[in-house]
Design goal:
The complex is a heterodimer of chains A (85) and B (100). Chain A is mostly beta strands and 85 residues long. Chain A has one domain: EutN/Ccml (OB fold (Dihydrolipoamide Acetyltransferase, E2P)), CATH 2.40.50. Chain B has one domain: OB fold (Dihydrolipoamide Acetyltransferase, E2P) (Beta Barrel). Chain B has a 5-stranded antiparallel beta sheet with strand order 3-2-1-4-5, with no helix packed on it.
Chain lengths: 85, 100
């Protein structure tokens, strides 16, 4: 699990069938002090997090496969919580 | 999943049977500057990788690709694939906060 910040979204028409209907966001991983760490990654966002909100990012593929309901999905990153404080 | 730019293609004559039906692309992963709209540089700092593609991404396309175990999930059986094109990106809306 990683702390990250939502820095944007992507639009993709041609995609793996399992991605249809799921929101994909650009997440900037943050370190413990809240500084940017590394390059942004993409994640599925079932919670509807807003721009610049801090989130918890899971890199567990099996949880994502369960969420999208397709055992053949190539997706891995999943937003599992929005940080309040 | 990470973003990258397609910079080339690989053709194989003799190959693993699982590779049939798709093709192999050379993809240069995005740097943070490229998310903000900077053009791809001919010689990037990071290394490029070979990504399996079933969607038909062409040269210069921006693709989202997964790596690791998830890259082999779309295949019926075990596949020697490290990275897989999950989507071809039409539009990137990237707005990092200004103060950082």
């Amino acid at each position: 699990m990683l702390l990250a910040r939502i820095d944007g979204t992507i639009v993709a028409t041609a995609c793996h069938p399992s991605m249809a209907g799921h929101r994909n966001v650009i997440c900037q991983p943050l370190d413990a002090q809240g500084r940017e760490e590394g390059t942004p990654v993409l994640a599925v966002d079932p919670l509807g997090a807003g721009l610049h909100q801090r989130v918890i990012l899971s890199t567990d593929g099996s949880a994502t496969r369960e969420l999208v309901g397709d055992p053949k999905t190539p997706l891995r990153n999943l937003i599992i919580g929005i940080v309040d404080n | 999943m990470r973003l990258g730019t397609v910079i080339g293609r690989i053709t194989l004559t003799i190959k693993e049977p699982v590779y049939t039906g798709g093709r192999l692309l050379i993809v240069q992963p995005f740097s943070r500057e490229q998310f903000a709209g900077a053009p791809a540089v001919p010689l990037a700092k990071g290394s490029s990788l070979v990504v399996y593609d079933e969607l038909g991404a062409g040269d210069g396309c921006i693709v989202g690709f997964t790596e690791g175990a998830e890259a082999t999930q779309p295949f019926a059986g075990p596949a020697p694939v490290d990275a897989y094109v999950a989507c071809i990106v039409n539009q990137i809306n990237y707005e990092p906060p200004r103060h950082t």
